[in-house]
């Protein structure tokens, strides 16, 4: 399941976000929506999963 | 994990969320406009803002001047008298407002994505998970 995790430091008033379980362009779309409400981030980092391709579905059985 | 971002700015990007955050702090009567003059500031140092909490509307705080938020390229920036921050609102007023703003942003994202929201407080940190 896709998730956005907000970590709010109540002493500093800062906020960190992690987008989990969303790959590639869909992740970028969610990030854009976040930027619309939170403004320009000071840190903006893609993680390894960002570039992961969705696992193709395996076909079971034969067409022969 | 696929993307990480951190937000440290003192500017509030979204006007509606700023109003929601102000409301959470009990500041519900707001005047909006364009470059409105803030009352209570020295005329030689007159200040303007686009979202204003008039001091006459929050008599409980006995403010020396209006609280303003001026629209800039990066969002709304607070214009608050130093004396009000030191003796009336508390020095942490902007931090408390930012915390409320970030919570309001999480609620907005949950609504926008049709997701569920789980909030957890761990010491001085608030964790909010929006699942969609």
Distance between the termini of chain A: 36 Å
Structural class of chain B: alpha+beta
Task: Enumerate the strands of the largest sheet of chain A in spatial order, edge to edge or round the barrel.
Answer: 1-2
Q: Give the tally of β-strands of chain A.
A: 3
* Uncertain runs of chain A: none
Query: What percent of the residues of chain A sit in helical stretches (DSSP H or I)?
Result: 10-25%
Lateral strand order in the biggest sheet of chain B = 2-3-4-5
Return Rg of chain B in Å.
16 Å
Q: Report the portion of residues of chain B in β strands.
A: 25-35%
By oligomeric state, this entry counts as heterodimer
Share of residues in strands of chain A = 25-35%
**Average predicted local confidence, pLDDT of chain B:** 95
- Element string of chain A (H = helix, E = strand): EEHE
Structural class of chain A: alpha+beta
Overall mean pLDDT of chain A stands at 85
Rg of chain A is 17 Å
Describe the structure.
The complex is a heterodimer of chains A (64) and B (132). Chain A has a domain at 3-38. Chain A is 23% helix and 28% strand. Chain A contains 1 helix and 3 strands; from the N terminus they run E-E-H-E. Chain A has one helix at 24-38; strands at residues 3-9, 14-20, 43-46. In chain A, strands 1-2 form a two-stranded antiparallel sheet. The longest helix of chain A has 15 residues, at 24-38. In chain A, 25% of the residues are buried. The model of chain A has no long low-confidence stretch (mean pLDDT 85). In chain B, helix 1 packs across helix 3 (93-113). Chain B has one domain (15-131). In chain B, the strands form 2 sheets. In chain B, strands 2-3-4-5 form a 4-stranded antiparallel beta sheet, with no helix packed on it. A two-stranded antiparallel sheet of chain B has the order 6-7. Chain B has 132 residues and is an alpha+beta fold. Chain A binds chain B through residues 1-23, 27-28, 30-31, 33-47, 49-50, 52, and chain B through 1-14, 17, 74-75, 94-99, 102-103, 105-106, 108-109, 112-113, 124-132. Strand 1 of chain A pairs antiparallel with strand 7 of chain B.
């Amino acid at each position: 399941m896709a998730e956005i995790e907000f970590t709010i430091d109540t002493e500093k008033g800062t906020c960190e976000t992690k987008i989990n379980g969303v790959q590639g362009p869909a992740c970028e779309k969610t990030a854009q929506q976040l930027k619309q409400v939170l403004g320009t981030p000071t840190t903006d980092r893609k993680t390894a999963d960002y570039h992961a391709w969705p696992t193709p579905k395996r076909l079971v059985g034969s067409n022969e | 994990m696929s993307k990480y971002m951190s937000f440290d700015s003192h500017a509030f990007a979204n006007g509606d969320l700023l109003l929601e955050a102000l409301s959470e702090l009990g500041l519900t009567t707001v005047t909006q406009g364009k470059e409105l003059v803030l009352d209570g500031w020295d005329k030689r140092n007159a200040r303007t803002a686009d979202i204003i909490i008039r001091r006459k509307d929050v008599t409980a705080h006995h403010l020396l001047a209006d609280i303003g938020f001026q629209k800039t390229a990066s969002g709304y920036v607070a214009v608050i008298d130093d004396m009000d921050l030191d003796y009336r609102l508390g020095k942490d007023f902007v931090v408390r407002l930012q915390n409320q703003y970030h919570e309001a942003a999480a609620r907005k994202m949950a609504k926008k994505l049709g997701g569920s929201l789980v909030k957890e407080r761990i010491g001085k940190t608030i964790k909010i998970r929006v699942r969609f």
